[in-house]
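Appendix C: a fully annotated inverse folding record. The material below is reproduced so that readers can follow the format used throughout the book. The structure is listed first as tokens, followed by the designed sequence.
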């Protein structure tokens, strides 16, 4: 247990590729302050942040940006992004997620239903950074292996210790169940 607690205290850092359009943004500064190696690129989509160690990509958009442009331009930008990035997240920022913002998220979900896009509603920079770093961290190789191991161990423990499972074994439900 103590070893696990020590591992959690070690700061996780990685290389982050950020769109040049975000160079003067608070998000870029916040990532640098967390000791991540930030690299700027003109070749990535405006508003994109890519964690290179995991291939997770985030597209930052503000709900104000939606109201300033046409819906088709907004949706085309999202579509281009998810066609390029296999593991993509739309970070939709709004100071308050009211009815208008929830309707927007619902329209985006309807349009991209079945795609690899996940929508993260956020309120501020700190919220966005915490979500992005957490997702990138848990999808990185050493962490995903640890999570898979813990889930497998937990599943085995539940099966061994479950009173329901023990009852099913006692009445030998496995051999007597016939769906026909």
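Designed amino acids, in order:
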């Amino acid at each position: 247990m103590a070893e696990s607690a020590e591992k959690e205290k070690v700061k996780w850092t990685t290389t982050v590729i950020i769109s040049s359009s975000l160079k003067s943004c608070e998000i870029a500064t916040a990532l640098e302050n967390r000791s991540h190696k930030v690299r700027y690129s003109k070749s990535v989509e405006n508003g994109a942040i890519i964690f290179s160690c995991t291939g997770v990509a985030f597209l930052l958009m503000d709900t104000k940006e939606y109201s300033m442009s046409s819906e088709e331009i907004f949706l085309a930008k999202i579509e281009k992004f998810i066609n390029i990035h296999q593991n993509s997240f739309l970070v939709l920022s709004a100071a308050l997620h009211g009815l208008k913002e929830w309707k927007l998220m619902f329209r985006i979900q309807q349009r991209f239903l079945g795609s690899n896009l996940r929508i993260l509603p956020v309120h501020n920079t700190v919220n966005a950074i915490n979500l992005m770093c957490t997702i990138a961290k848990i999808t990185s190789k050493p962490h995903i292996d640890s999570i898979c191991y813990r889930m497998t161990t937990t599943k085995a423990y539940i099966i061994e210790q479950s009173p329901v499972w023990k009852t099913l074994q006692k009445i030998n439900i496995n051999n007597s169940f016939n769906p026909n």
